[in-house]
Amino acid sequence: MKLLAYLRSLADALFHRSRIQGEIEEEFRSHIQYRVDDLEQSGLTRAEAERRARIEFGGYQRSREECREAMGGHLIETVAQDVRIGVRMLRRSPGFTAVAVLTLALGIGGNTAIFSIVNGVLLNPLPFPQPDRLVALGESKPHFENGSISYPNFLDWQRGNHAFSSMAVSRGYGFSLTGRGDAEQVNAEFVSADFFPLLGVNPILGRTFTSAEEQAGAGPVAMISEGLWRRKFNTAPDVLSKNVTLDGRDFTIVGVVPAGFHLRVPSFRESDVYAPVRQWSNPLLMNRGAGLGIHGVGRLKPGVTVEQARADMDVVTRNLAATFPDTDRGIGASIAPLKEQMVGYVRPFLFVLLAAVGFVLLIACVNVASLLLARSATRRREFAVRTALGASRGRIVRQLLTESVLLGMAAGGIGLLMAIWGTRAALKFLPAALPRAEEIGLDFRVLAFTTVISLIVGVLFGLVPALRSSQSDPHTALKEGGRGASGGHHGALSTFVVAEMAVALVLLIGAGLMVRSLTRLWRVDPGFNPQGVLTLNVSMPPSMMKAPPDRIRAAFRELDEKLGSATGVTAVSQTWGAFPMGSDDEQLFWLDGHPKPANENDMNWAVDYLVEPDYLKVMETQLKRGRFFTAQDNAHSPLVAVVDEVFARQYFPDQNVIGKRIVLNNSGKTLEIVGVVAHVKQWGLDLDDTNTVRAQLYLPCMQMPDDFVAMTPAGSGVVVRYEGSMAAAFDSIRRTSKQMSSEQVIFGDQAMGGVISDSMATRRFAMILLGAFAALALGLASVGIYGVIAYVVGQRTQEIGIRMALGAQQKDVLGLVLWQGTRLALLGVVIGLGVAMVLTRLMTQLLYGVSATDPATFVGLALMLTAIAVAACCIPARRAMRVDPVVALRHE
Amino acid sequence: MRIEQISGRALLIEQGALYPALFRLVRQGLLTASWGTSQNNRRAKFYELTSAGRKRLDEEAAGWNRLAAAVASALAALPEEI
After folding, report:
1. Per-residue pLDDT at A628
2. Same structural domain for residues A544 and A442?
3. What is the mean pLDDT of the segment spanning A202-214?
C-alpha cells in the first residue's frame, strides 16, 4: 500500500511533471484565496487582505521548491534543468569555456591515449583461444635463464610431462624460394606438428602438419602464409596440389596460414613458409647438447597453474639429467606465461607513463578549478539571488557541479578524438617501441575509461569551487554589489598553485632522468662504429647447397671480392656467428692443458663471431694486441682465434694471452690465440654489463669445419662498410650480386645505426612521451600561476592604489606581487622535490647510468621551474606596478 | 490557522511551510488527498488520514505522550524524591 502510493507519486512526478507543478500552484492559490476571503470578511480591504494572506503564507517560491522535492522524482527534473542552465552559462562565456575544455581535453586525451596502449598491450588477453593457458618454454641453463631447447630434450619433455595438454617448438630459418618469378629469400619457421593446433590457429585452406610429417624421412611438406599465397600463387584455390621450391627442394603445400595470425615473441618471426622441424637439414638437430635457437610454447591442461607445471617439469628434467649427465646436467625448464614473455618488459614503462599522464590531468584539473574559482567571484550575485529566491545550498552546489561535469564531458569528447589521432601518430612514428602495437585501439573498455575519467574530473575540479562559492551569505554578497571581499578564495587558489608547482616538478624530474639516461646510453661506446655499416644477408644459388665445402669456401671468397669492388663499398666480411645487438651464438671451450669438463655446463662459454679478415675494418673495432685474421688463415693453415679484452681478463688474468691455446667443444680442435680486440656491447648498450656471458671469441670463417660450411650457402650474414649514400652502395651491391647469378638473393638489408636506435626504441618512446607530458605540465602550471597572480592583482588593485597613494614605490609593489607568486612557487618546489624523491625510485628500472635521485637533475629542474614561475608572475607584477592610484581609487 | 487557534497561538507555522510536509506524508502513504468543494463553494484540496496514517499517528502520539509525561513528572519531582 505504502509502496504503491510511493510508486504512484514517483511516477506522477516523473511523467506528469507539468501537471504536478500546476497542481501545486493551484493548491497554493486556493489556499491564499481562501484566506483572503476570510480576512476580507473580517473587515479588511481586498488589497490589504491579499497582502496579509501572502505574508502569512510565507516564502512562496521556497515552499514550492520544497513541495516539488517532497513529491520525489525531482532529481531527474532538476538535473535536466541544471543541464539547461549550465549549457546556457557556458555558452555565455565562450572564452572561459574554450580554455577550460581545451585544458581538460589535453589531460583526458593524454590519459585516454596511454590507457588505450596499456589496455591493448597489457590488459587485453592474447588473441588466442584460452590464452591464460599458454606459456613460453625454454631450457634454463647456468648461463641462460631462458635458453634454447634441444630437439631431443623437447621430445622427452613432450612424452614425460603431465601438466601440458600440448607442447610445440619453433625455429627460424631463411629459405631461398626459386622457380616462381625472381628468386627470393623468404622467412621460414620450422615448427613441430602441434604448433598451430596448440595456438588454435586454423589454416584458411588445407590443414596443419601431422605427427607423421614430424618424423625423420617424411616427405617435405610446407604451409605457406596468406601473403605468399597471394603474391606467388595469385590466390589460386588449387594451391594445395602444388609445390614450392625451397633451397632447391620441392615442398608440397598442405595449408595456408591466415594473415591475421600474429605471435609476437622474440623467438618467433611471422613467416611466409612453415615446415616440419625434421625438414631442417642441420646435422646437430638430433644432438641433445646443441643450442640451436629452438624455443617452445605450451598449453597447460585446464586448471593447472604455472607453478604446478614448473614442479612437474622439474621432475622431467631431473630424470633427463640423470639419464644424460653429459648434456643435461644443470638443465631445467623455464616456464613463463606467454603474455608475460611478450609484454612483460614494457610494463614498467607503461606504468610510469600512466602515472605521468595522470599527473598532467591533475594539473589540468587544478588549473580549471582555479579558473572556476576566480570566475565564481564574479558570479556571487547570481548565487545570492538564487539563494534569496529559495535555492538551498545543496541545490547551488549541484548546479555548479553540473556545469563542471558538462565541461568534463565536453573535454572527454574532444580528448577522445585527440587520443585516437595521437596514438595512431605515435605508433606510426615509433613502430618498434611496443609489442602488440597492432592490437592497440579503441574498445569498450577505453570508452568506459574516458567516460568515467571525464565524470570524475568534472566532479574533482568542480567540487572545491562549488562548495566555496555557495558558502557566501546572500546579504553581504548582494550588498557588496559583486565586488571585492573575495579574499576567502585566495587560500584555495594558493593551495592550487602550490600543488601545480609540485606536480609539475615531479614530472619534470621524471622526464629529466629519462633524458639523462638516454644521453648516457647514446654516449656509451658500443665497441664498434655503427655509422657507415650496412648489414645484409645473401643466399647463394640452390645449386650451391649441395656443393663440396671447398667449393663453397671458394664461392664466398669470390663473393667477397666482387662485393668489395662494388662502388661505394670499402670493406666486406661474412659473419656466420653472433652479431652485435643482432643475433647471439656461443662456443663452449676449455683451456688447453686442462682436462675436458665432464659436461657442457661446466665448460667455459664465449660469444663467438665467425668472421673474415676485413671484419675489423668494417666494424672499426680496435685491435689491442697481436694481429687479426689474414687471408692466410685458411682451411689448411694452423687454427687461430682472436679474443676480446673481457675474455683475456677472465681466463688469463695478468698473463700474455697471445700464444695461449683453447679447445673447442664442437670440433674438439685446439686453437691458438693470436690477437686481442676491444670488447663489443653484444647484448645492447644497457644490458651488456650485466649479462652472464661477456667473453668474446673471434674465429675465421674459412677455418670452420666442413659440416658447418655446408650450411652457409642457404643464408650468410654480410657486413659492409660503405662511403657516400647507403642507398647507392646497396644498389651497387644488388647489381653486383645479380651479375654473379640471377638465383643469388640479397635480403634483409639494414643500417647498423638503425639497429642501435631500435634497441633503444622503447626507452626513447617513454622518454619522448614523458618529455611531452612534462612540457605540457610545465605549460599548464605556468599558465596556472600566471592566472592566479593576475587574478589576485586584479582583486588587489584598490589596495595597491592605496599603498601607492600612501607613498609605496613602484619597485615595492613589484616586489610585493613577485614575492607572493615566488613564495607559492618555492613552497611547491620544495614539496615537489620531496615527492619526486619517493616516486622516481619506482622508475629505477627505466634508468641507465643515472641514479633515481640524481642531484643535478633535481636541483637543475627545481631552479628552472622556479625561474619560469617567477617569469610568469612578472607580467601581472608589472601591471600592478603601473597601477595609477587615482584611477584605482576612483574605481570604488 | 486551526493549528494556531487550537494551540492557543503557541505553535506558529508559516502557512506555506505546511505543504511540503503534507506532500511528504502523501508520498509516504499516510495521507490521501482529493480535490473537492469547500463550504463556500471554492475548489479546495482535502487531506485525509489513511489507515496506515492513523496507525502511525497513534504510535507517534503515544510516544509523544510518554515523553511528555516523563518530562512532566521529572520536572514535578520534589527535591527529596531524588
Report:
1. 95
2. no
3. 93
> Does A753 touch chain B if contact means CB atoms closer than 8 Å?
no
Least confident of A204-213, A463-472, A563-572: A463-472
* A24 touching B (Cβ < 8 Å): yes
Domain ranges of chain B: 1-49, 51-82
Co-location of A60 and A202 in the same domain: no
DSSP calls for A781-832: HHHHHHHHHHHHHHHTHHHHHHHHHTT--HHHHHHHHHHHHHHHHHHHHHHH
Nearest C-alpha neighbor of A137 from the set A126, A145, A128, A129? A145
If asked whether residues A168 and A298 sit together in one domain, one would say yes
User: Cα(A88)–Cα(A862) distance, rounded to whole angstroms?
Assistant: 42
The whole-number pLDDT of residue A484 equals: 45
Contact check, Cβ <8 Å, B29/A33: no
Work out how many domains chain A is built from and give that number: 5
Tell me if A137 is assigned to some domain.
no
Q: Would you say how long chain B is, in residues?
A: 82
Identify whether residues A480 and A492 lie together within a single domain: no
Which domain covers residue A493, as residue numbers? 488-523+752-892
Question: pLDDT band at residue A539, thresholds of 50, 70 and 90?
Answer: confident
Based on the fold, state whether residues A501 and A482 are members of the same structural domain.
no
CA dist A695 → A572, A587, A602, A656 (Å) = 24, 10, 16, 16
Which residue in B14, B22, B23 has the most chain A C-beta atoms within 10 A of its own C-beta, making it the best mutation to test that interface? B23
Q: Report the residue of B2, B19, B56 to disrupt the A interface, i.e. the one with the largest count of A CBs within 10 Å.
A: B19
Q: What is the pLDDT of residue A483?
A: 47
C-alpha pair distances (Å), A208 with each of A127, A167, A254, A637: 19, 15, 7, 49
Last residue of one domain, picked from the residues A33, A56, A72: A72
Q: What is the pTM assigned to this prediction?
A: 0.71
Closest B-chain CA to A67? B20
Q: Please check whether residues A757 and A677 belong to one and the same domain.
A: no
Residue of B nearest to A20 (CA): B23
Provide the pLDDT for residue A252. 94
As given in the structure block, the three cell numbers for residue B35 are 480535490
- What pLDDT digit, counting tens, does each position of A159-204 carry? 999 999 999 999 988 888 888 877 777 889 999 999 999 999 999 9
Does the model's ipTM exceed the 0.85 cut? no
CB spacing of B15 vs A4 below 8 angstroms: no
pLDDT, chain A, mean: 86
User: Which stretches within A42-148 are classed as H helix?
Assistant: 46-57, 60-70, 74-92, 94-118
* Chain B positions in Cβ-Cβ contact with residue A66 (cut-off 8 Å): 17, 19-20
Question: Predicted confidence band at A486 (pLDDT cuts at 50, 70, 90)?
Answer: very low
Nearest CB to A63: which of B16, B38, B40? B16
Q: Specify if A548 maps to a domain.
A: yes
Listed residues A31, A54, A72: the one ending a domain:
A72
Residue of chain B whose Cα is closest to the Cα of A65? B20
The partner residue sitting opposite B29, judged by closest CB among A6, A26, A62, is: A6
**Residue A261 within any structural domain of the chain:** yes
Whether residues A184 and A323 fall in one domain: yes
A335 is a domain residue:
no
- Residues A475 and A540 grouped into a single domain: no
